[in-house]
Design a protein that fits this description.
The structure is a homodimer. In chain A, about 30% of the residues lie in helices and about 25% in strands. The first copy, chain A, is of the alpha/beta class. Chain A has a six-stranded mixed β-sheet with strand order 5-2-1-9-21-20, covered by helices on one side. In chain A, a hairpin with a 2-residue loop joins strand 20 and strand 21 (about 295-300). In chain A, helix 1 (about 20-25) packs parallel to helix 9 and helix 5 packs antiparallel against helix 6 (about 155-160). At the A-B interface, strand 5, helix 5 and helix 11 of A face strand 5, helix 5 and helix 11 of B.
Chain lengths: ~425, ~425
């Protein structure tokens, strides 16, 4: 494969998510050649994926074409390909029938859902990692209401209007809140034979409270805010069986048509081929400078990395960690090229937040060495500000802001499209 | 199937395009029950579909959920279903396993592409009628550039960068212009191994000039404007064979990867079950009041109708005809309920237009009994004004305007997403 001028060191970045894209940007117009490999042609702003799944935003609103983001500097090349493995001895990445050699490698391939050994659950309860996932979940949500409107079977109607989110982390909480809002506000007047606001939304969480990573007062506040939206929260229980007709939680069977998976991740398989030690979730246990043991030319960032040196626990799989690690890895490479050593990585934790709905959110903001616990309207406004600020590309930012403003004032959501074949969905599950 | 209160006359409208939606709106809050049946859950603003296919707009920008558009009046019900047939004797419409009885029926199911007996060409050269079509064409266009960037086979690269549009009507002209603009402006800096602005765009048209329905001076102007964008126009020839590798035009074989079909329509099969006379394109030959012979309770509007009484020729399959016929059909029904006769339909032809690109268009405007021929910037501004004015729903209008303004000033197009599995596309055709 041609990769341009061979004189300058060649940096290969695998993955165009938050970690990989930040690394690439930090190397723009530096004296290196950079090849960014991704299996999609866009950078996805994953924290807003649940808004595509719930018809508030369009796929293009939260995705920026990688080639466009990185078009300015001629030292930067984008390759659309799926990487299968790394050959650490040959210094080469295998992507389909193409091999890309590297001098320095940054692996940022992220994670997928983990179904804890129940791969057959994926079809029944899709997770939310890709645009395709989001559009599929949107279709299932909207089709459930369509089915309920049509059926004359009361039990089937109830099951269609019961939505279960498995997992009470940020994604689960955001999905549950957004589904409750769609049912109560957006669709309120749309049907003639059902009342969408009677839909049940249930969150299943194994811990005693949702949002395990948050301080306890915010976890309680989030619970209260979800309940205000009518969301039922079942804590301390696990989904033990999933079928087309519903799911089993402890001894109870909940009949429901739409189930969404927001519980647990497993790291991308690409980490394995580095030969580095992996943790139970498949993450690469990196050195404290993000390099891989015995291979200082390879660094791992973001959800694929297990970095336990700062808190004793692995850093969480959130975008600020990935972005800071991506930038750090880029700096390390420039240092190594200059003959210096890679530096230890320190995560600057500015806090975390989760949105629940209109004027509803929780935020744990770390500022001036104190931790500020916000909830409700003020947390929601902080969330809004930060998310618009970090959306990649001016166009997306304005487009998203406009659609949010529109939705806020009208309670309407514009992207309520059911695409692809839906005939099978109109029939009750066999 | 439940259809509400049985006392008032029941009007069933099949199809939520321009004709069906206008008919429904004209019956809102009137003393009738209305059931609108469509196989999608949205009204599609079809004249802008080519902008989704060329990555300028997102699907949701040009689609409005039918339930939302018609939610205000309780006499209006929307049913998501695909109609298979009409039983004119039983006064009933068959949709899946559901029968919907009617007192009055408006058929507005439109048309699909016609491949003139070559059904196998559909896979090779998709047409542009649905959102799914548009997203598929967008994927093929963007993947062709990705493939060209990767391949080292010079002939395959040339074929990937050759785009052929079959048919030089408004859709063909708009597609060709938009592809040329994407290649020359939007993607100009995105690649490292190809120069997108060297892409060839070819329009195949059987007539001596493109835009057969326009006055000759505008047809010549459109030709000139397309050529200014670098589009090659082959007139007086037909595609005689299509393969994965290219297409045959007369004696010449043009190697090309992406082919788009914009030649010829065939009416929806639903018309046939009315028992009314059909023309060669499958359209129902209606009476001069839009009713079907022997069935005054059934009216046919839009692309499905052949209305030859005004000009001697069938009225063209454009949205103004469908909208005016839809409103007329609604008025006819209210008249018949009052014991009056349905009235003859007259089409008020305000002209027609086609856009070619940035500041490029032709418009034939009928005003004060004269015909005004516009081209270039002024025609483009008229086109812009009319299209934004008629976009359904305030939100879509503002969203589209914003994205156009953004694209106009930056030459950028925001919706450049390749979704679904693309691995097969990265390999050369077998």
């Amino acid at each position: 494969m041609k990769t341009g001028n061979g004189a300058r060191p060649h940096v290969v970045i695998v993955g165009g998510g938050f970690g990989g894209l930040e690394a690439a940007k930090a190397l723009e117009c530096e004296d290196v050649r950079v090849t960014l490999i991704d299996r999609t042609n866009y950078h996805l702003f994953q924290p807003l994926l649940y808004q595509v799944a719930t018809a508030a935003l369009s796929p293009a609103d939260i995705a920026a074409p990688l080639r466009a983001v990185l078009s300015e500097c001629r030292n930067m090349e984008v390759v659309l390909a799926e990487v299968q493995a790394v050959d650490v001895n040959a210094h080469c990445v295998k992507a389909g029938d193409v091999n890309v050699g590297y001098d320095y490698l940054i692996l940022a391939t992220g994670s997928r859902h983990s179904y804890f050994g129940h791969a057959e659950w994926e079809r029944l309860a899709p997770g939310l990692k890709s645009l395709e996932d989001a559009v599929e979940i949107r279709r299932r949500l909207l089709m459930a209401f369509e089915f309920a409107e049509k059926t004359s079977d009361e039990a089937a109607r109830k099951a269609a209007m019961t939505f279960v989110v498995i997992g009470g982390g940020p994604t689960g909480v955001e999905m549950a809140g957004a589904i409750a809002e769609i049912a109560r506000y957006t669709l309120a007047k749309d049907f003639r034979h059902i009342n969408p606001s009677t839909a049940r939304v249930i969150v299943i969480e194994g811990q005693p409270l949702v949002l395990a990573a948050f301080p306890e007062d915010l976890r309680k506040s989030a619970t209260k805010q979800l309940q205000d939206l009518g969301v039922e929260i079942r804590t301390g229980v696990h989904a033990t069986d999933l079928t087309d007709e519903g799911l089993k939680v402890g001894d109870e069977f909940i009949p429901c048509r739409v189930k969404i998976w927001a519980a647990g991740n497993t790291a991308s398989f690409v980490g394995k081929s580095t030969g580095a030690p992996l943790d139970r979730a498949g993450r690469v246990i990196v050195n404290d400078d993000l390099t891989v043991p015995a291979h200082p030319e390879i660094q791992v960032v973001g959800d694929l990395a297990n970095f336990p040196y700062q808190t004793g626990e692995p850093l969480p799989g959130v975008s600020p960690v990935a972005m800071q690690q991506g930038r750090h890895a880029a700096r390390n490479i420039l240092a190594m090229i200059d003959g210096r050593k890679p530096q230890r990585f320190y995560y600057w934790d500015k806090g975390s937040m989760a949105t629940i709905g209109r004027n509803k959110a929780v935020a744990d903001v770390h500022i001036f060495k104190t931790s500020l616990h916000l909830s409700g309207l003020i947390a929601w406004m902080v969330w809004l500000f930060i998310h618009v600020l970090f959306l990649v590309g001016f166009r997306n930012r304005v487009a998203v802001l406009f659609q949010w403003a529109w939705a806020y004032f009208t309670f309407n959501k514009g992207a309520r499209l059911i695409t692809r074949n839906f005939q099978a969905e109109l029939r009750p599950p066999a």
